[in-house]
Amino acid sequence: MAEKADVWQGTLALMVLKTLDTLGPLHGYGIARRIEQTSGDLLAVRYGTLYPALLKLEQEGFISAEWGISDNNRRAKYYTLTRAGRKQLEKEAREWDRTTGIIARFFSPSEEAS
Amino acid sequence: MRALRAFLFRLTGLWDKGRKDREMAEELESHLRMQVEDNLRSGMTPSQARRAALLKSGGVEPAKEACRDHRGLPVLETTMRDVHHALRLLSRNPAFTVVTVLSLALGIGANTAIFTLLDQMVLRRLPVRHPEQLQMIWTTGPSLGSTQGSRASSYPMYQDFEQRATAFSQVFCRYYTPLSISLENQAERVTGELVSGNYFQALGIGPALGRVFSPEEDDRVYQGHPVAVLSYQYWATRLGADAGVLGRKILVNNYPMVIVGVSAAGFSGIDAARSPQIRIPIQMKPLMTPGSDNLGDRRRQWVQIFARRKPGYTMQSAQTSLQPLLSGILRSELESPALRDAPQRDRDRFLARKVLTESAAHGYSGLPASYSRALVVLMGMVGLVLLIACFNVASLLIARAAARQKELAMRLASGASRGQLLRQLSIESAVLSAAGGAMGLLLSVAMVHGLLGFLPTNGMLATLRAEPDWRILAFTAALALATAVLFGVAPAWQALKVDLWSTLKEAAGSVGGNRGSVRLRKSLVTAQVAFSFLLVAGALLFVKTLLNLKETSSGFRDADNLITFQIDPARSGYSLPRLKAFYQQVLENVRSLPEVKSAGYAWVPVLSGREADWDVLAEGQPAENRETQAYVNGLSPGYWRTMGVRLLEGRDFEDRDAGGRPKVAIVNRKFASHFFGNRSAIGRRIGLDTGLQAKPDVEIVGLVEDSLYEGPRQGVRRQVFFPFSQMNQPVATAFYVRTLADPASLFATLRRKVQELDASMPIYEMKTLEDQLDETLGTERLSATLAVAFGVLATLLAAVGLYGVMALTVARRTREIGLRMALGARQGVLLWMVMKEAFGLLGIGLALGIPCAYLLSRYVSSQLFGVAAADLGTAAVACIALGSVAAGAALAPARRASRIDPMQALRHE
User: C-alpha angle B656/B662/B663, rounded to 5°?
Assistant: First the structure.
């Protein structure tokens, strides 16, 4: 199996929020799979990182959790984006755009030349 | 906000941990299963699928642990674990725990008790709107009239201020007077307050029921407002909080009045020490104080003036703005007929009078200032007691830490950080101090109840409460915390200074800990001795003061068998002639009792702190002798015989003096020698009128031995006495009855004798003269008793501390002592060796304590009587007392040292 980067905390929260925004209520496994797939299997999401991050988001009120039944009839805990979570997502997405924009400018050769 | 939410979430995470753990396990399990199913679908065998799933997601247990950390509050959880641990340790060592908690509880309880009184009598602001704006106003200098009570002004002067003072939004006044209230035909005596109509408005106090007074409705017509407002406390306790009292008629001084309201709960008045049960518009004054009107008289000063400052003025600028106003008032007063002929000298002094003000945010207390001073001193003393107790606990903790040194070293060696151990040790002290604080709070309630017994009981202190409120709770909590820091930090620090290597190397635990801890304990004991000296010396000073005051010859013989009681028929509506007749009848009724030897009565009760003084003009008085003040009293015939005071010359008053022709007087020895030197006073004439135009028309017919007037602190006064029958105002009197029987057995009989004449006549203050003296010396008794209690407590605590340290020293030196014995040292020498060390500590403590006592003594000198603050004898007695207690404490360890078996001692590690 190829070496996969472990997802890092700050961005994981953003990815979780975005995933829930796109797919609606989802259980932990679904979130993990979705993130891995979206990353083109470049990222690996482990329990040890995912579940504390979910708990933290829940404590902060960005997501809420509820037990439900999964597609294949299993009991699973489903996470839903709250209104505060949606706001937080917009805010963080904006900040992310800004940050990446700044970083990108540092690495664009044309700017350096002028 | 988010952080708070997360915190609350985590806090709830502390409960119901089991369920949350199970949920977490279930969630991870479902995650794993889904992964396994996906793997199966992609063609793995079941065992491969499970293995791959586990590998991919990382371990289940670490994930659970990571979540758990996120869920609860790790800090709180470990703290609770430490508390649990501390409780277990303490319960394993009950003797230590009980001694520690008890000594802390005593210290904290005593501090809380004194603070409760200090807070209520000195520190607390009035519970009114913006108390910081309140200011009391009074004037200095000669009033050229009569003055009643402290800081009093005349009512017309109050009116001038009320109308013309621009710096104040409201100016109001009040006057306390005892009143007789008749509810359901049962007369009772209460404290009433006559107030200006704007009193409640100015203070911002509303009604709990009905209405309070307003300037429009209740301050317009002279004698025209027969209405009363009850205090909440009186309404709740005496009338059962019955809403039906509104509009009910009551008799106040036999005058029908209507209850129109009850003032707000929690408001007791301007004087923290005295809460009136009823308030009445001041325009009713003539009816409330029969025989004296005073409302329109500028020469009679009796109301106390308070005011609410307007915003924009400071206390000083407001005071300054009043001075021109006062000067104008004084100038116009000098034009009045009463003062027109005053001599120039008096006019100048009169015009030089000044306005003074003072913040009334805390109200103005009628209690003597000596109470608050005594409380401050006692607060200091009780603080020292707590300090001594803390030092003992610290010493015990050091000893315990020393005993646990091996355990601590072991834990350090196996990876615990010093911070962790420090936290655990501090939590142990915190648990101890919390327990001590909680017990102390309970103790303090009982102590305050006890303390209140020392203060005067005549209803004045009804507002003082023993129940702790949040201020007291906060004080106790702060105190407990401070003690924990005081006694906890040093031992913990000491304990963690262990040298890991050498401690673990030692085969058995060392007995006494390292050198540093012994030195620390010795310095704590030294400080304890020094503090104890302060307290013991202070206690001796206060006891001597009390004894000196009590032994000051009052001049009254055998005060134990002298009963006194007071009656006030004017408040039941008696006119002057009827009142005089009534007193005469009471006297005859009492005298007819077989147990009664003699009886008499007086206008001003003696030894009660009360007084009346007039300027006296004496015929043939040397011109340069301007000191004309004399203390007066009106007496019935037979008074002197009853009091057991010798008549030196002339005669006692007789019934024939009642007519007032000629007017007669008796003077005491001090009066006679002041005015007449060594010539006889009998037959001389004096002027007794209060005004400036007194004529010397009173003849002195008797000379009596000196006796006390207000009380022992004030000493013997120049006194002049006139027959009560010549009194021209219907005043209250104090009766004095000398009995052969047990005084207490006579109380009921005396009551009956008075009530045979008037069944509804209230009788109050019935007691022996000895008890009266004790009450007057309330402050001194309080100071002396508490100081002795603190001194004894401090000495005992210090003795325990000394014993502990000496026992420790002996234990540490067991081997050395054994060796000395083996080499032939005698028991006596060894005994002395230990005692010498104890006396060394005592000596250093005293050497520190004595100069401190000397420096502090000037703070108590105003509380003392007949003994110098820096009294050598007292210091010597305190030294001897402490020395013998210290010797006693050190003797047991010393004897143990001298009886050590050398063989065993040498084997001792």
Answer: 90
Residue B619 corresponds to which tokens in the numbers above? 């015929």
Q: What is the pLDDT of residue A41?
A: 80
Cβ of A47 within 8 Å of Cβ of B2? The answer is: no
> Helices marked H in B42-93 — which ranges?
46-57, 60-71, 74-92
Q: How many helices, marked H, and strands, marked E, lie in chain A?
A: 5, 5
Q: What is the DSSP code string of B781-803?
A: HHHHHHHHHHHHHHHHHHHHHHH
What are the DSSP E strand ranges found in B326-441? 355-359
- CA–CA distance, A69 with A78 (Å, rounded to integer): 9
Interface test with A, best of B7, B26, B30, B51 (most A CBs within 10 A): B30
A91 vs B: CB within 8 A: no
CA distance B151 to B819: 77
- Reported confidence tier of residue A112, pLDDT bands at 50, 70, 90: very low
Distance CA A65, CA A55 (A): 9
What is the least distance, in Å, from the CA of B73 to any CA of chain A?
13
* Inter-chain CB proximity A46 and B30 less than 8 Å: no
Q: Nearest CA to CA, how far is A99 from chain B (Å)? A: 24
Compute the nearest-CA separation of A22 from chain B (Å). 21
Percent of chain A whose predicted confidence (pLDDT) is above 70: 86
| Contact present, B682 and B700 (Cβ < 8 Å) | yes
Burial of A3 (0-12, 13-18, 19+ CB in 10 A): exposed
Flag if B30 and A76 touch (Cβ within 8 Å): yes
- Three-state DSSP class for residue B490: helix
Mean per-residue pLDDT over chain B, rounded: 84
Q: How far is A49 from chain B (nearest CA, A)?
A: 7
Q: Which residues pair with B250 in a beta bridge?
A: B257
**For A47, which of B2, B5, B57 is closest by C-beta distance?**
B57
Over residues B228-241, the pLDDT tens digits come to 999 998 898 888 88
Chain A residues with beta carbon closer than 8 angstroms to that of B26: 75
Q: Which residues in chain B are closer than 8 Å to A76, comparing Cβ atoms? A: 27, 30, 34
pLDDT band, very low/low/confident/very high, at B323 (cuts 50, 70, 90): very high
Q: What is this model's ipTM?
A: 0.82
Contact state of B58 with A47 under an 8 Å Cβ cutoff: yes
At which residue do the structure tokens 């009184």 appear? Answer: B117
Phi (first) and psi of residue B608, to 5 degrees = -115, 5
Q: Do A46 and B31 touch (CB under 8 A)?
A: no
B71/A56 Cβ within 8 A:
no
Q: Can you spell out the DSSP letters for B498-563?
A: --HHHHHHSSS--SS--HHHHHHHHHHHHHHHHHHHHHHHHHHHHHHHHHHHHHS--S-S-GGGEE
Contacts of B62 in chain A (CB under 8 A): 48
What pLDDT was estimated at residue B508? 46
Q: Which residue has the tokens 């939590």?
A: B427
